[in-house]
Amino acid sequence: MAYSIMEVSPRDGRAMAGIDGLLAREGLRRDRNLDYICAVCDEDFRVIATGSCFGNTLRCFAVDGGHQGEGLLNLVLTHLTEVQYARGNFRLFLCTKPSTTKFFSDLGFYEIARVDETLVFMENRQDGFPNYLRELEKARQEGSAAAVVMNANPFTLGHQFLVETAAASCRTLHLFLVSEDASLVPFAVRKRLVQEGTAHLPNVVLHDGGPYIISAATFPSYFLEDGDAVIQGHARLDLAVFVKIAEALGISVRYVGEEPFSRVTSLYNQIMSAELPKAGVHCVTVPRKEVGGNPVSASAVRCLLQERGVEAVRDLVPPSTYAYFASPEATPVLARIRKAGDVTHY
Description:
Number of strands: 14
Low-confidence stretches: none
Mean pLDDT: 91
Strand content: 15-25%
Order of helices and strands: EHEEEHEHEEHEHEHEHEHEEEHHH
Distance between the termini: 47 Å
Largest sheet: 7 strands, mixed
Structural class: alpha/beta
Radius of gyration: 22 Å
């Protein structure tokens, strides 16, 4: 029988109930944050296959057990790929169960990393992640190596203190900057402020995280609200990818800042402390830098920028960060922050 596939609106209660039921029967749960959902229905309008997108990722695939072997998963994957190509997304990622890895491999996806026997992360480029690792390896140097990963939204004295602490402990510090452009401060600005704020540290090597470090592909919970169990799964996947990066660069220690504010980052740090040592990477938590008895955070800086203006953050950020926000160049970014509503990171 030939089946048709259709986009499903999140407001279509009947179709969404059918999708949720199908996913549940297959031992899955629908992501709460999706930007495209499709379904295949039988002649009685029952959902028998589904798949979804978020950013440049493909998610939430399921086919009813009574319709296995009818090519429905291929139909869904082809449809979602066409949707992504129409959006201009040609580099695609997906997460799947180990039991379906071979199917996606046969359709041109390649494994990057897996979490135990529960989750496999794949992309549609055979040379994607290997090329990323080869580029990183060019920065590998003799002696001890450590890592810091940050979003720096924006770069504060707290970030600077973390980098200085880590850089003092090793021959080379690899600083990975989250490059997903989903923050109030654009990536290009965040990168420049990090470069300027760490210019006095000659052993710091700055890397773009790309789609492999805390991105919408590996860790969407960093950008979108999710439950703790989902956050933990995303965190483990992100760390599984990071372990491969650490191997390429000879990284033996990862430094993280103490996190008293963000639930997502706090959970991530807890999982990191438990998981990284299993892969031979020590995890060191650095206490927050304080100013006036209060811990410095990017969230606090954003709140002050929103409520009181640029002058209020002078003592919380490096001179280069302050100079940026005090310049006309920052006008559109400040406008975004003022209009953003809640500027804290949940």
